[in-house]
Amino acid sequence: MATPLEDVGKQVWRGALLLADYILFQRDLFQGRTVLELGAGTGLASIIAATVAQTVYCT
Hints:
Layout: H1 14-25, H2 27-30, E1 34-37, H3 44-49, E2 55-58
Parallel strand pairs: 1-2
């Protein structure tokens, strides 16, 4: 199933879910760090990272 280009940033991609899950279960790796998420889409992983990291940049 294809996603129209105009809808690409309006959905939560599987990769974002996997990254958010990884951040939640590996909190110690992100504690007090700076995180940069490129091509964040809905920003889910950045929102999760912001609960642990010191600084988060989401683009």
